[in-house]
Amino acid sequence: MATNTYVGAVDQGTTGTRFMVFDHGGQVVANAYEKHEQIYPEPGWVEHDPREIWENTKDVITQALDQADIEADQLAAIGVTNQRETTLLWDADTGRPVHNAIVWQDRRTTDRIEQLQDEGKADDVQAKTGLEPDAYFSATKAEWLLDNADPIKTERARPADVRERAEEGEILFGTIDTWVIYNLTGNHITDVTNASRTMLFDIHDMEWDDELLEEFDVPREMLPEVRPSSDEDLYGHTDDDGFLGAEVPVAGALGDQQAALFGQTCFDAGDAKNTYGTGSFFLMNTGNEAVESEHGLLTTVGFQRSGEPVQYALEGAIFITGAAIEWLEDMDLIEDAAETAELARSVDSTDGVYFVPAFTGLGAPHWDQRARGTILGMTRGTRKEHVVRATLESIAYQTRDVAEAMEADSGIDMQSLRVDGGAVKNNFLCQLQSDIIDTDIARPQVDETTALGSAYAAGLAVGYWETADELRDNWQVDREFEPEAAGEYEDKYDRWSEAVERSLDWARDGGD
């Protein structure tokens, strides 16, 4: 492989867009980032302007290439990774969105999900999609847009109804990967991982499902073609007359959490990673089997390479981890996140204090929207050091809750957990995590695993990397943590479970 070629990754996230360029060793050679506006039209509603996202995408690609003095034709391929579930519709003729994108966090379709549950349809949806029916996913967002987007001005005698045009294939549906790929290549494509988050896709038959499309009244004509995450047939090329001035293959896409799984080279059943951000996303590769969860996890598509079977994953979403540390800052208990390790180390234990950071309810495996943040066990002798330590322990305990659910569902004994995200720079937390789940913790040198995963998917598709083994060789440990005091936490974990029980079902109507 020529030494002066690279692979680029568009990482389109909830708060901003990043473009990263990687070399053959998986090292970062360029990185540019821009934020976009968060739009809140009503309480609980969250939107993004898709045009702003596309403009920012072009800007960060140009900035990163300029920064590293790389020409566009030195890119062997581009991969895409994205905030999952966020949904938009656009006009096939003009390429213009018909409405802002509805973001994954948006709760406007909660009533529709409750209707689905009341009609006894939730189990059927979960059996096909692997998803716990929720307003989080794309199906009800698409339905809302079709019913509520303003009619479009056309050459017809009257403005055309969006749904009517969608049935004629004149309106296109997509998640953000599809929007970015469409603007890069002109082709209407999604990958298997993003399709699996729409709640319109049967993950067993690996196709759009007619009954789900009928339930949510989404016309098949508006749906993208579903392709492997790493696609030797390519999604298309950039236009040499376009902003890059070169024909670059676009060949890989994965939703952000699956991209992190791929970037952490979790290619085999039992391989697992946890991304510690505002919340945490814990994914375990379950191989070619879509394991049905009996413990509150989601079954999802992990990834698919060209000509190979689909690899599935179990996923546990923990709502509040890094955000609990931000809360300590908001409460003036710490000045910055870096202080937490030193403060937590300064005491031998939490002195019996437990903190359940259920600020927005509890996610996997508890799924209680009415749980609320709870601190238990305080005495007159409790100091901020105890609360800080209890906060770090809560991150590790919540991760163990999900790890135990995964092992129970899959029957796979997890040998090691690969970690990434901002919070894993904290050595104290990593050691604590190892002790509390009694498993080795591996932190990689390159922690931008989401962008790296989509770069790997695109690079494999075009032969920039020949084999998965090459990627495994690239994966370098920054530091490994082994259990040192696992026995100390067994009784404490039982007490944690009691603390969680106390936090459940606290919020009544109106939040009080």
Automatic annotation (TrEMBL):
Belongs to the FGGY kinase family. InterPro entries: ATPase_NBD, Carb_kinase_FGGY, Carb_kinase_FGGY_CS, FGGY_C, FGGY_N, Glycerol_kin. Its EC number is 2.7.1.30. It is an enzyme of class 2 (transferase). The keyword Repressor does not apply. This is Glycerol kinase. Glycerol binds at residues 84-85, 136, 256-257. Residues 6-263 form the Carbohydrate kinase FGGY N-terminal domain. ADP binds at residues 14, 18, 278, 322, 422, 426. Key enzyme in the regulation of glycerol uptake and metabolism. Catalyzes the phosphorylation of glycerol to yield sn-glycerol 3-phosphate. It comes from Natronoarchaeum philippinense. The gene is glpK.
